[in-house]
Amino acid sequence: NSLEKQCADLRTLIGEHSDAWKRLDPILYDLAFMSATRLEEATLHTERVLKVRRRVKHLLTDRSFIRASLTKKAACIDQATDGAAPLLFVHWSCIERLGELPKYGMPGGALTVDSVKQLACESLTISKDRAERH
What we know:
With 134 residues, the protein is mainly α. The chain contains eight helices and two strands, in the order αααααβαβαα. A two-stranded antiparallel ribbon has the order 1-2.
């Protein structure tokens, strides 16, 4: 947080003295402002990544997560990653057909937990509750 605050303070300082900076050297002003903005964005991104890594590390060591159902695991992963990395399944035939893992969002590539459960229900002719355990 202190680095984030320092970045914000730097942008504020540049902004407060923008008229003077622009009169002296408009190109230098633009460069300084852009650099401060990029530094702040990089800092925020790094903090978000670290936060997600901490959450995921905790999740992977949590026995209740390890023993949880697929639906519960999907919800926990979604929460831990702020929705950035949903739990998806790729069938081996898809990898064989493409010769590699499908790109994220590719139609017919990866399936959500609900889709996998639905396929299990249809394939095994069982209820959704039982599909959760298969």
